[in-house]
Amino acid sequence: MEPQEINVGIDTSSKQLDIYVRPTGQFFSVANDKNGIKDAIKQLQPLKPQRVLIESTGRLELEFVCAADKAGLPIVVCNPSQIRSFAKSAGRLAKTDKLDAMDIAHFGEAIKPRLSELNQKNLERSVTYWL
Predict the structure, then answer these.
(1) HSE of 62, CA atoms in CB hemisphere, 13 A
(2) DSSP code at position 90
């Protein structure tokens, strides 16, 4: 039996990150700040995910993206309209933070988008500028 690939979907807001692990169904939320991000990375690393997918949401995702990239997690920064179209095509009309995180993880599993190529210096500069 082939091991299942792990895809992590993260719905981002200014206050928190809602995180869903597919296919295990694990769901948790952390604060969208340094401590919460550190905690999320600590929980995700042992899972050895194929992809950690996060929507591009007006730079609210940048601090997590920088930290996850530094930690060696495979990051995919997604276009929110693609995720929403995917969710609608799968019949999902409801929209909550948990459902959004589930849709993002499902998108990763079904579409298998390639990892984002990140320039750490530019990302860090952007995070510093916007904080």
Answers:
(1) 16
(2) T
> Is residue 90 within 8 Å of 53, Cβ to Cβ?
no
pLDDT for the residue 50: 98
Q: 78 exposed, middle or buried (CB, 10 Å; 0-12, 13-18, 19+)?
A: buried
Residue 131 has a pLDDT of 45
3-state helix, strand, coil in the chain (%, to 5): 45, 20, 35
pTM: 0.89
Contact 53, 113 (CB under 8 A): yes
Q: How far is residue 9's CA from residue 128's CA, in Å, rounded to a whole number?
A: 25
Looking from the CA of 113 toward its CB, the CA atoms found within 13 Å total 25
